[in-house]
Each structure stands twice: as C-alpha cells, then as structure tokens.
Write a structure and sequence with these properties.
The protein is an alpha+beta fold and 210 residues long. It has a single domain, classed as endopeptidase fold (from Nostoc punctiforme). Helices cover 25% and strands 20% of the residues. The chain is built from 6 helices and 8 strands; from the N terminus they run E-E-H-H-H-E-H-E-E-H-E-E-H-E. It has a 6-stranded antiparallel beta sheet with strand order 3-8-4-5-6-7. Strand 1 and strand 2 form a beta hairpin. The longest helix is centred in the N-terminal third of the chain and has 12 residues.
C-alpha cells in the first residue's frame, strides 16, 4: 500500500491509502439518488418481462392474451424505457401518443428535437456520471432505415473504471432481443451493426422529481 496524503485532523494524522492496481471509478461514486435508479432497475424484473415476441402491456411488460392467429410481437426496448420513466415521474414519448411499433426510432427523434426537458450529453463519461448522480439517462440509436427498429436503453449507475468505459461503454439495462438488468452498451446494442463501434449512439438525461 502507498501512503499518498497526510492531513492534520484534530491533532491526529490521517492517512489516505491507495492500493496499487486498484482502478478508480471513471465517473464518480453512485449517490443515494443513483441507488434509487439501481433499485428501480433491479426490481423491474426486465429479464422475465418485456420479452421479445410477446404482445405486452407496455407499462408492466406482462403478456396480453391474444387470439391463436394473432401475429407475433416484436422487441420492447422502447416500452421498457417508457415504463421505467413513468415510474420515476419522467415523460418520454410513449403510448398512446405513439404506438409500440418503431417507437425506439420515434423516441430517438423526439429526444434529438429537445422535447420534454431532456438534454443531450457529451459522451459516455458524461452519461455514466449523470446516471451515478441519479439522473434518468437513456442511450438512443435511430435506425437509418426508418422501416427498421432502432434501439434505446437505460444507463445504469456503475462504478466501472475508465478502461472499462472506453472498451464497452456505460453500464445499462434494457429489453430487446435479449433483456438485461445489468450489461454494457457494447453488448446491449450488438444487434444494431455499427451503432456502438461507429459512435452512432446518443445519450440524453432528465432530472428525476424528488
């Protein structure tokens, strides 16, 4: 261990200890407000709800009864984001203002237009830091083919280090082809070619009401 700082505190010496090789969080600690976001995502049961192929109620992710000849459902990334935002008292474009089909593209365009008090963030470090501070942060990819689905996910508070952030992007939670309560942007957006590697993902933040 290395002793990096000595400070006088009430006549006693206080030592700050750094362990060699211990990676520091890239984007600040997770605040109590950030822990609220973590709890929301952990309790959402996203790995068993909002499942691809189900026809669902967007608010709960639970499947709806359908006739035997009903067409299969699609993926539900945008419905999951809308549901978690609603639970925090944050508005993002959602039913009934827009149907669930191609909603992720519509949300991406809506966010880019500066609607609803959302603000763009300058890069992944800013997105991870904002999430750690307890803001509701989303990562959005608009498919250049408007007839094909885009993708949207929630940035999850995380104390990952700078190397992990640079390699894999911020931590996130999502519904999609695979649902995750905790993964990384690179994994979550892998079904959208070029989205991560070509820097086509945009991040936005919204304050969460107390």
């Amino acid at each position: 261990m290395l002793l990096t700082r000595r400070a006088a505190m009430g006549g006693l010496a206080a030592l700050a200890i750094v362990r060699p090789g211990f990676a520091q969080p890239c984007c600040g600690p997770i605040t109590p407000a950030g822990q609220r976001i973590v709890q929301l995502l952990d309790e959402s049961d996203v790995e068993r709800r909002w499942l691809a192929g189900d026809r669902i109620a967007w608010e709960t992710g639970l499947p709806l009864p359908t006739a035997p000849d009903a067409p299969p459902g699609h993926t539900h990334c945008s419905a999951y984001v809308a549901a978690m935002a609603e639970r925090l008292g944050v508005y993002i474009l959602r039913p009934p203002e827009h149907g669930q089909v191609l909603l992720a593209n519509a949300q991406g365009n809506w966010l880019a237009a500066g609607k609803g008090g959302w603000r763009p963030l300058a890069g992944y470090a800013a997105a991870q830091a904002a999430a750690n501070q307890g803001q509701f942060v989303v990562a959005s990819f608009i498919n250049p083919n408007p007839r094909k689905a885009g993708h949207i996910a929630i940035i999850r508070p995380s104390e990952k280090d700078a190397a992990a952030l640079a390699a894999d992007g911020p931590a996130e939670a999502q519904a999609g082809q695979h649902n995750y309560s905790h993964t990384d942007l690179r994994v979550g957006f892998r079904y959208h070619r070029g989205a991560f590697d070509q820097g086509l993902i945009r991040c936005y933040a919204h304050d969460v009401p107390a």
